TrEMBL record:
Anthranilate 2 binds at R161. It holds the Pfam family Glycos_transf_3. This is Anthranilate phosphoribosyltransferase. Its EC number is 2.4.2.18.
Length: 330
């Protein structure tokens, strides 16, 4: 077994790529991996470490072809707020607006219900969704890239993450290793002060346009509660700005208003949202959908983006898309 370096010391990008390559290749003892990940999380990962680790994961993933302009919308998880599945709903809404969405996700590692758990509770067969991902992405404009299908090297890591029950660098690596190779993303992270560090990692990897966002209360998506940190990453550079709900003509609401539960609970809430249910969950989805539509180049205006998302819900296009997806992924 390979010996890991001292996790209290920062790794360079190349060294991080090598270390995480060894972890993913099964060359490290599981107990040592757990201790290493815990210590890295405690002292906070650097942009070099995140970029290097993401490169290692990218080198080992099973990619798919995707249409031009495909996007992804996801959160890194681990924020401890246990909210309803905002990015999953946003993916359906944005796809219903005509933007191809290659949704990359997993089962819950440190939350009650991950994207895969909720979609499965809605009736989407995860195995079939994986087999038909390229077809549904091209024919319907949406797919779910179940991490275990495209990152086989993660098979032995997932149980370690679940045992730890904390956010680790693997939460941060996943969104940077989308198997569809998307060049436009909305990525939510759980620490507002960490946005520029994560944005720097994304800039090292390059992107057409990506928003890295975090709610002031540590939410891994754009929050209605107060304000949000946003890094606008284009190419190999980024700039920081502040975003609040009123920019999209949406009301403020506390995080507790979108508190979720298990997969069944979250699935019912998502289905109700797609059927037009009003409230903070809908508003949170509209705000994050607006951001994704801006990243996708469909609009440059927050209010217009929210209006486009609202129309996709109220016309039943998003609900019909979900039904078609479930039917096709058989």
């Amino acid at each position: 077994m390979t010996t890991l370096p001292d996790a209290s010391l920062h790794l360079g990008e190349a060294e991080a790529e090598q270390v995480f390559g060894a972890i993913l290749d099964g060359e490290i003892d599981e107990e040592a991996i757990g201790a290493f990940l815990t210590e890295m999380s405690r002292r906070s990962e650097t942009s070099d470490e995140i970029a290097g680790a993401a490169r290692a994961l990218r080198e080992r993933m099973l990619p798919i072809d995707s249409p031009e302009g495909a996007v992804d919308c996801c959160g890194t998880g681990g924020d401890g707020h246990h909210t309803l599945n905002v990015s999953t709903a946003v993916s359906l809404v944005v796809a219903a607006c005509g933007v191809p969405v290659a949704k990359h996700g997993n089962r819950a590692a440190s939350s009650k219900s991950g994207a895969a758990d909720t979609l499965e509770a809605l009736g989407l067969d995860m195995e079939a969704a994986g087999r038909t991902a390229e077809k549904t992405l091209n024919d319907l404009g949406i797919c779910f890239l179940f991490a275990k299908n495209h990152h086989p090297a993660m098979a032995r890591i997932q149980p370690i993450r679940q045992r730890l029950g904390i956010r680790t660098i693997f939460n941060l690596m996943g969104p940077l290793a989308n198997p569809a190779g998307v060049e436009r993303q909305l990525i939510g992270i759980a620490r507002p002060a960490y946005v520029p560090i994560y944005a720097a990692a994304k800039a090292k990897l390059g992107t057409e346009r990506t928003f890295i966002v975090s709610g002031d209360e540590g939410l891994d998506e754009l929050s209605l509660a107060a304000g949000n940190e946003l890094a606008d990453v284009q190419g190999n550079d980024f700039e920081m700005r502040r975003v609040v709900a009123v920019q999209a003509d949406l009301p403020h609401a506390p995080v507790e208003a979108i508190r979720g539960g298990d997969a069944r609970h979250n699935a019912k809430a998502l289905e109700a949202l797609l059927m037009g249910a009003p409230g903070p969950y809908r508003d949170a989805v509209l705000l994050n959908a607006a951001a994704t539509l801006i990243v996708a180049g469909k609009t440059s205006d927050w209010v217009e983006g929210a209006d486009m998302a609202r129309a996709a819900i109220d016309s039943d296009r998003a609900l019909d898309l979900l039904k078609s997806w479930i039917a096709m992924a058989q």
